[in-house]
Amino acid sequence: MSYPADAPTYIPKDQFVKYLDSYIERFDIQPKYNTAIESCTHDEGKDCWISLACDVTTSVVVRYKSKFLVVGSGENSAANIPVIPGLHDFTGEAIHSSLYKSGAAYSGKNALVVGCGNSGMEIAYDLASHGANTSIVVRSPVHVMTKEIIRLGMTLVQHTPVNIVDDLLVRMSNFVFGDLSRHGIVKPKAGPLLLKEKTGRSAVIDVGTVGLIKKGIIKVHGNISKINGNVVEFEDKKESSFDVIVFATGYKSMANTWLKNGESMLNNDGLPKKEFPNHWKGANGLYCAGLARRGLAGIAIDAKNIANDILSTYNTNRFEMN
Question: Transmembrane region positions (predicted)?
Answer without folding.
Answer: none
